[in-house]
User: Which sequence fits this backbone?
């Protein structure tokens, strides 16, 4: 079993920054791929960014490219999402997820991830 706990969400003005963290426990964190997804009210959960088990490869949604950076610290069992130049349309609940996958391809779809955190709210005011 895996437990994922997100933190770092909050209210920020447009153009501001937030850093989300996701602490993992219960499995060998460094063996698995991690991702960040988000879900706005009335919308489906969507991919934001992902990173493979050793941090060598990452992938971003078009909406996140150039503004968000995913990283991981396997010694701390933690994955991060640095979000800069935030926009009101980034407002959503952000979820981290773990995929029972160890490879070089970056996973980007919801069904590929097995474990999910409870989510952290990010609200960007205009």
Assistant:
């Amino acid at each position: 079993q895996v437990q994922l706990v997100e933190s770092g969400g909050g209210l920020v003005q447009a153009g501001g920054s937030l850093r989300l963290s996701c602490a993992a426990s219960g499995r060998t964190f460094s063996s698995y791929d991690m991702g960040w997804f988000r879900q706005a009210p009335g919308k489906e959960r969507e991919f934001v960014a992902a990173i493979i088990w050793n941090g060598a490869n990452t992938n971003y949604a078009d909406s996140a490219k150039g503004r968000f950076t995913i990283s991981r610290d396997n010694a701390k069992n933690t994955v991060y999402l640095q979000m800069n130049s935030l926009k009101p349309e980034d407002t959503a609940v952000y979820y981290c997820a773990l995929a029972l996958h160890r490879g070089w391809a970056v996973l980007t779809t919801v069904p590929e991830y097995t474990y999910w955190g409870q989510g952290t709210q990010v609200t960007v005011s205009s």
